[in-house]
Amino acid sequence: MAINNAVAGNPTLNGVELNLFSTEELKAIHYTTLEVLENPGIQVSDAEARQIFRENGCEVDEKTQIVKIPEYLVKKALQLAPSRFTLWGREKKYNTLMECGGKVHWTCFGTGVKTCKYEAPGKYVTVDSVEQDIADIAKLCDWAENIDYYSLPVSARDWAGRGAQDVHETFTALTNTQKHFHHIDPVGENVEYYWEIVKAFYGGDEEEARKKPIFSMLLCPTSPLELSVNACQVIIKGARFGIPVNVLSMAMSGGSSPVHLAGTLVTHNAEVLSGIVLAQLTVPGSKVWYGSSTTTFDLKKGTAPVGSPELGLISAAVAKLAQFYGLPSFVAGT
Fold it and tell me: What band does 117 get if pLDDT is binned at 50, 70 and 90?
């Protein structure tokens, strides 16, 4: 029986509602972000991406690799980015509609490097994750009706150092789940290989693969305020192949972003919007998420606690920003 998913921001939802900002407060975060995008701007480490920004009117400093993005390009990108798109599964019944303010969907998360092997009640050993774990967890997620699509949960450590690890992770996931696959550790230089796998599923039909891609990709800007070479290539190639891309910041309040959460939201927002702008400049109408795994930095333990109260506050704020921009959102949790 299908799950009757909750609807994001639905006032009829029973329970506690967390509504952090008024429209005016969201505008204040937005306008402050626009100031950051213009000055100091974003460091864009990829030459091809800098060229795309330059050709579309951005001020680019090749020496510092700083790109200053004007307000009108941000507005144009937000107008072009779709407010809804489908995550296609290998089986039609598992198709998932992502939409701004629509139903809440659930996925597994990763990418871990260890798995627990249970030996007896209360006893287990922790070992490096391997390619077979990806296949096994895929089948488990197919069985779990509350999980709407499959994200790469662990790494194929048995392929580490042997080359093409990410390609094996893609192939193994796609051949073991009937749901949509969300690759959260893509390698920009290998996206063409992922694309060939998708085309093979459609018998080599590139048009059908573009229309119904059975996987999507996640990339993280480098906080504070950088789009790395890998991030840029994932965005650019995702746009060109029609693959949905999740631009997800992992800023850490008090570490790689301001200790005050409001300042962290501005840093986060600038990073995500810069990636969305690059996607829309590459191919107008490219499918993108507004993503977040931003949390606080534990100054005592030197960790980024996913599951802290601050993460809950930030995720609620980020989801509201995504709705403000009319974009589907993706936020971390436990």
Answer: confident
Is residue 290 a contact partner of residue 328, using CB atoms and an 8 Å limit? yes
Q: Give every CB contact of residue 315 below 8 A, 6+ residues apart in sequence.
A: 292, 294, 331, 332, 333
Give every CB contact of residue 240 below 8 A, 6+ residues apart in sequence: 282, 283
pLDDT of residue 4: 66
Q: 């631009």: which residue's tokens?
A: 247
Phi-psi region of 326 (alpha: psi -120 to 50; beta: other; left: phi over 0): left
Q: Is the pLDDT of residue 49 over 90?
A: yes
Q: Are 327 and 289 in contact (CB under 8 A)?
A: yes
| CB contact at 8 A, 178 and 148 | no
Please state the separation of Cα 329 from the chain's center in Å: 9
One-character DSSP codes across 197-215? HHHHHTTT-HHHHHHS-SE
pTM of the predicted protein model: 0.92
Q: Are 290 and 313 in contact (CB under 8 A)?
A: no
Task: Say how far apart CA 264 and CA 255 lie, in whole Å.
Answer: 10
